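Figure-free illustration: sequence to structure, shown twice.
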Amino acid sequence: VDPHKSLMVQEELFDVLWNDSRSRIRAEGVNELTVNKHLKDTQQVSFQQMTHLDHAFTEYKEDPEKRTEEIALAVWMHLLMKDEGASDDLIKRLAAYVEYDYRNIVLALPDEYFQEGRINWGSMPNFDGMKDKNGKTIQPLPLNTDDILPKGWVKALTDAGDTYFWNTETNMTTWQRP
């Protein structure tokens, strides 16, 4: 793996995380004077996670089984905050998502796509039929009708934390729900 390319990926991911976190913090109505404190806390947790994932991908580059175990440990420790109630099924699905995006971005993405910011993130894992710690199927949460948008539309946040809607097919944006 080219160290320069790896550094570019890390910087891009950091920028995306930073901007997204700031928008989400503001969207929660946090006092503007404390936004940077919350960003610092987010940065600390995410840095620990990224360091752990870097370790998994470099130390176990040639050992997919150990790498998967280490990614799963990173997911449990840093995303799920060592939640003893988190199911192994959830951890495995999230670890598979991390592995997929790593392979997609670092190993498969053409350099020119990366430099142009054309990164195709993988779809979120399917959580249907997920099992709890006791092996019992977890019932899906009821669907919130406010989350349903017409085809092609997604909800997004400005840097100020304001919600807007974006049509990914036409590139049209609107403040009003479509």
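We now fold a second protein in the same way, so the two outputs can be compared directly.
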Amino acid sequence: YDEYYNGQVKGIYDSIISSLKQNSQRKFSAVEMAFIHRVWFDSSEEQKQDILNLIQNGQLEILHGGWVMNDEAAAYYEDIVDQMTLGHRFAKEYLKTIPKASWAIDPFGHSASYAWLLSQMGIEGWFIERIDLQDFEERKNQKAVDFIWKHNEKTKFPMFTHLNLYPYWKEPKRLALGWGSFLENDYFKVFFNSIQFDNLPYHIGGDFTWGSADYIHKGLDRIIQNFADNEKDNHVRVVYSGGRQFLQALYEESRSKPSAKLPEKREDFFPYREQEREFWSGYFTTRPNMKFAIREAGRLLQIYRKIHFTLYGFKDTINDDLKKYEEDVYKLEKIVAVLQHHDAITGTSKQRVVQDYLLMLKEALDGIRSSTYQLSLIHISEPTRLLSISYAVFCLKKKKY
């Protein structure tokens, strides 16, 4: 985790922020708050203001806003809600923004229940990618890549969903071929044949591919200008955009096209099948001990939160120790959130990454257990006794052996 951040992520965000400042038309969308949180607290006040300015003028968009892009099959719903809350809380408090669109292009299949959860969190639409190959081809042929996802018949807040038409990890290969490859043989025509509307989102980049953001943006600047110079011949207009901007454009277009009705879906996209005989179902059960540890940590987190809530009533009496307790609860919140990642709780990470995850979890649990023990022995019994309140869970005494 630290290796990813120090070796790749921090430099990527520095490059992106610098590039966006050079041209007010450029845009970039960020998803996982776990890394943005670290970027924020590693930045100077001037750099923080740059980030806020870019968000405010729409150049830097926060999509999804969860602490991580969580898995949708193996993660427990309560832990999903917690990690989303943690990320949105940070986005609102520090970045002064509330995400309205979600981005989930890497989890191995998608859940109708998760779509419903997102709708309850204020998300108005989301972008997905990994679904069964047969379903994918049928949706392309039927122009059903844009659809409404309903959890059930009585769902009051159905989720608008866009299915990406091309794997995100292939785009860097096209970048390597040169920018002119975008203009060859009516490249975008094949995509427009698979949608009902005139607006198509097309994302640029992949894992760790924005390390030279100015180079990529300059290439995109040239593409946009080339399309603008030849708009009559290409019949395509290319602009920088973001998730929420695309949703707004699609909404406005749908109002002007009453005949274009979005299809509905209620079932999950499980299991995910990438090739004819390759079903992504092993991660439902792989590394069971790790899955158990993560699930147990999530339940322990709820207990420690309840203790914290009760302790807060005595904050004037135990202020110093309560502050340490809050810090340890927050540390546990962050690691439990990280472990909901689609390459963590699924067990699809490399062994050394798994070991790193479990080490961070152990350190967080050791810290909160120590804080709880100290508060129980030193403080809790006294104020509760004075107030004639009995909390058996807090009445702990050190045993003599």
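Summary for the second example: The chain has 14 helices and nine strands.
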